[in-house]
């Protein structure tokens, strides 16, 4: 398989994780993490995805040891992924055994060196609403320094992933909102029907019928819509309907 075919396969797989239903965030991150090393010529890759400060970061790596490294880095709040995501540091290839890396990442650098990696660079996951994470690329000493063209390709993959997940999450939120609105409308219709039933049966106004319905539901710690449906379907509490 040619590099172009492998690249196309990765983009197709990334898009396929979010086509139907809720977004498969974990699957999308796995595709990017596992596809990056061979396409970009690095030893390993990891993706850190944290689009919201109130959500726990999700991490995927091309191998378990790298996944653990980046997961721990989230807790340490250090490492190139953290710098790239949190402080918006421009992507630069750093030597893990250099003094700057050791001083800036006292936990991360020794751990990565112990895994056999010599250099690292992080590329931001850039969506339309901002940076949602980072693609971390780790290289062995024998591997060449990444060229500007390779970094551009990696950035394109990171950006495509960010935009794909962003759109999938927006679509999922829209589906959830639509379902909630549909449920609210359905409940409202049932309540109106129940008010009419009670008003006719008990010879009262619809406002008094609603007050009765609401009081009955609250006294039994039940939803008004549930009690209303029982009234409409003819199996409500006789004490409410006067039967």
Number of helices: 10
The succession of helices and strands, N to C, reads HHEEHHEHHEEHHHH
Mean pLDDT: 84
Kindly report how far apart the N and C termini lie: 76 Å
Strand order, biggest sheet?
Answer: 2-1-5-4-3
**How many strands, what sense, and barrel or not for the largest sheet?**
5 strands, antiparallel
Unreliable stretches, pLDDT < 50, 5 or more residues? none
Q: How much helix, percentage-wise, in residues?
A: 55-70%
Describe the structure.
Helices cover 60% and strands 13% of the residues. It is built from ten helices and five strands. The mean pLDDT is 84. A hairpin with an 8-residue loop joins strand 1 and strand 2. It has two domains: 3-171, 2-Layer Sandwich (Beta-Lactamase), CATH 3.30.450.40; 182-241, Arc Repressor Mutant, subunit A. The chain has a five-stranded antiparallel beta sheet with strand order 2-1-5-4-3, with helices on both faces. It is of the alpha+beta class and 243 residues long.
């Amino acid at each position: 398989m040619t590099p172009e075919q492998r690249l196309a396969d990765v983009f197709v797989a990334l898009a396929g994780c979010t086509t139907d239903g809720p977004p498969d965030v974990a699957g999308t991150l796995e595709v990017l993490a596992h596809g990056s090393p061979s396409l970009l010529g690095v030893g390993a890759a990891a993706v850190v995805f944290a689009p919201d400060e109130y959500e726990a970061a999700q991490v995927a790596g091309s191998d378990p040891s790298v996944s653990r490294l980046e997961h721990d880095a989230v807790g340490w709040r250090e490492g190139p992924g953290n710098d790239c995501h949190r402080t918006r540091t421009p992507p630069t290839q750093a030597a893990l055994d250099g003094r700057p890396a050791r001083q800036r990442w006292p936990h991360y650098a020794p751990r990565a060196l112990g895994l056999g990696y010599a250099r690292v660079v992080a590329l931001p996951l850039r969506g339309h609403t901002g940076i949602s994470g980072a693609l971390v690329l780790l290289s062995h000493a024998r591997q060449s320094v990444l060229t500007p063209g390779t970094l551009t390709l990696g950035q394109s993959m990171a950006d495509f992933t960010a935009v794909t997940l962003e759109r999938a999450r927006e679509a999922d939120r829209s589906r959830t909102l639509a379902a909630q609105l549909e449920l609210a409308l359905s409940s409202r219709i049932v309540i109106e029907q129940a008010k009419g039933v009670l008003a006719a049966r008990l010879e009262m106004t619809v406002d008094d019928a609603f007050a009765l319905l609401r009081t009955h539901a609250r006294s039994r710690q039940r939803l008004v819509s549930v009690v209303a449906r029982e009234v409409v379907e003819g199996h409500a509490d006789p004490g409410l309907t006067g039967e």
